[in-house]
């Protein structure tokens, strides 16, 4: 699943073409891409297209793994999107051939760039777009990266801020860690506690912090908790600089190009390879329907009481 760096790369790529544009046409090729759209009636595709047509796009915003695009309508709505497992948002020339697994095509007209096709493609159809109301943020800070207004898409309001958000509450994360005996990796993956972090970057941050993924969160010292948060921020920042992590053609930017942070991974996906720090083999273990990758020498397993 795309994580914060991959989604931010998409947001940054879409912004120049979408912000300030007006929607000229909407084609819904597969209504399964509108599972998040609460349509008024039995025709979600028609409702989505009718409510979006003619709207101006004011900004491109991200919180965690959610994207939203505030609209000019006085109703205070946005297009909210989640890429799911394999979703892609691409920019194409008008009239460009259909993408493989293309679900929705939105034609926008930008005052500087002219007509641009905004394409939502999704192989597994777990991603979705929707028209969604904007709601006020609970803390009065901007709703997400890309817009200074204290508004957030209602479908993204339940998730926490991400570690790169200036309004992220470090103390709240430390308190969340201190009050649970769940594995520290499970806490990092809980989008209600910290958003945008998935399996790849949790493994990388814990490797860098020398903390075993199964360590009970409440067993962490304040210093260890601070170190983990610092490493989460560091790995997300490095991944952003390298365009995110791409293992296959599903994770691409708006021009269809892959990121290259996979070359910089220290633990994730390196099962059996030598740990870059100590040379011992990286180990892979099952974890909550996923896998954890760690060094058993550098990241000592917690002692069993």
Can you walk through the features of this model?
The mean pLDDT is 92. A hairpin with a 2-residue loop joins strand 2 and strand 3. Helix 1 packs across helix 6 and helix 5 packs across helix 6. The protein has six helices and eleven strands. With 305 residues, the chain is α+β, with helices and mostly antiparallel strands. The strands form three sheets. Strands 2-3-4-8-9 form a five-stranded antiparallel beta sheet. The protein has a four-stranded antiparallel beta sheet with strand order 1-6-7-5, with helices on one face. It folds into two domains: 153 residues, Alpha-Beta Barrel (N-terminal domain of MutM-like DNA repair proteins); 125 residues, Helicase, Ruva Protein, domain 3 (Orthogonal Bundle).
Number of self-contained structural domains: 2
Rg of Cα set: 20 Å
For the report, how would you describe the main beta sheet? Answer: 5 strands, antiparallel
Strand content: 15-25%
Give me the CATH superfamily of the largest domain: MutM-like, N-terminal
- Structural class, judged by helices and strands? alpha+beta
| CATH third-tier fold name of the largest domain | N-terminal domain of MutM-like DNA repair proteins
Beta strands, count = 11
The parts where pLDDT drops under 50 for at least 5 residues are none
Indicate the CATH architecture of the largest domain: Alpha-Beta Barrel
Succession of helices and strands:
HEHEEEEEEEEHHHHEE
What's the assembly state of these chains?
single chain
Give the mean pLDDT.
92
Helix content: 10-25%
How far the N terminus sits from the C terminus, by CA atoms, comes to 35 Å
Number of continuous helical runs: 6
CATH class of the largest domain: Alpha Beta
Shape: globular
Strand order of the largest sheet: 2-3-4-8-9
């Amino acid at each position: 699943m795309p994580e914060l760096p991959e989604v931010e790369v998409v947001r940054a790529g879409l912004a120049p073409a979408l912000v300030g544009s007006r929607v000229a046409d909407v084609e819904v090729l597969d209504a399964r891409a509108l599972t998040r759209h609460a349509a008024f009636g039995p025709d979600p595709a028609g409702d989505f297209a009718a409510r979006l047509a003619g709207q101006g796009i004011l900004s491109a915003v991200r919180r965690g793994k959610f994207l939203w695009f505030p609209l000019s309508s006085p109703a205070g709505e946005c297009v909210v999107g989640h890429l799911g497992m394999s979703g892609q948002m691409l920019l194409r020339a008008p009239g460009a051939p259909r993408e493989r697994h293309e679900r929705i095509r939105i034609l926008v007209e930008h005052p500087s760039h002219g007509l641009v096709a905004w394409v939502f493609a999704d192989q597994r159809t777990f991603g979705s777009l929707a028209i969604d109301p904007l709601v006020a943020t609970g803390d009065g800070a901007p709703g997400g990266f890309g817009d200074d207004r204290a508004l957030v898409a209602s479908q993204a309001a339940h998730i926490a801020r991400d570690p790169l958000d200036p309004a992220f509450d470090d103390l709240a994360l430390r308190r969340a860690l201190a009050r649970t005996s769940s594995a520290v990796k499970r806490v990092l993956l809980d989008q209600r506690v910290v958003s945008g972090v998935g399996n790849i970057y949790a493994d990388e941050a814990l490797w860098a912090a020398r903390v075993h993924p199964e360590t009970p969160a409440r067993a962490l010292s304040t210093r260890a908790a601070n170190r983990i948060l610092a490493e989460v921020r560091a790995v997300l920042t490095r991944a952003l600089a390298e365009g995110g992590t791409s293992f296959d053609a599903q994770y691409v930017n708006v021009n269809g190009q892959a990121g290259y942070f996979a070359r910089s991974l220290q633990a994730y996906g390196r099962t059996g390879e030598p740990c870059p720090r100590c040379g011992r083999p990286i180990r892979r273990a099952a974890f909550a329907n996923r896998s954890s990758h760690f060094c058993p020498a550098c990241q000592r397993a917690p002692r069993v009481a």
